[in-house]
Amino acid sequence: MHPRIRAAYPGAAVAGPAYAVTCAPADNLAVHAAVVEAPVGSVLVVAADPPERGYWGEVLTTAAQTRGIAGLVIDGGVRDVAALQHHGFAVFSSLIALQGAQKRAGGRIGGTAAVGDVLVDTGDWIVADADGVTVIARPDLAATLDRGRARADKEAGIFSRLKEGATTVELLGLDTSSVARSRPS
């Protein structure tokens, strides 16, 4: 996702299946409905416009944790950040905003939502941590996990060789001939 979507507090991390939510303008009624209807283990992935509202806070966090929701990714504002961290509920948002949202205009749950410049389908996999938020399309999950494991194994070997004195230039087969070098005078 676009880097504007980031952890609301240090240490937030989550991985799980997406449950897409699209809010009506300045309204979070759909978020409340999603907390009730999303499957246990889901990560709510919320499109909110305008973003400058606190669509999520401690009340929804408490409700979501009680229902087994794993976390929240929202292209909009959240509030009560200290409480979110205290609860240990993983939240990724585009901003922090105090002013709340209305709760009456509908919206949409399930299906697809455009969040962080990515179309997210319910059931896609969300992985989020301090480095950002990634969306893995449901049909690509198994192959992505296989590639991830292979990369982790390869990097473990690279780390070991680096600690033995090898260089990244050697290990990655880099050609540094195009790098200009200044000579000391």
Please give a structural write-up.
There is one protein chain. By secondary structure, the protein is α/β, with parallel strands linked by helices. It has helices spanning 29-37, 58-66, 81-87, 141-163, 168-172; strands at 6-7, 14-22, 43-47, 54-56, 71-78, 90-96, 108-109, 112-115, 118-121, 125-129, 132-136. Helix 2 links the parallel strand 4 (54-56) and strand 5.
Q: What descriptors fit this protein?
A:
single chain; alpha/beta
> What's the mean pLDDT score?
96
Secondary structure category = alpha/beta
Work out the number of β strands. Answer: 11
Instruction: Estimate the strand proportion.
Output: 25-35%
Largest sheet: 9 strands, mixed
H and E string: EEHEEHEHEEEEEEHH
- Please give the alpha-carbon distance between the first and last residues: 48 Å
Low confidence ranges? none
**Residues in helix, %:** 25-40%
How many helices in DSSP terms?
A: 5
Rounded radius of gyration (Å): 20 Å
- The shape is elongated
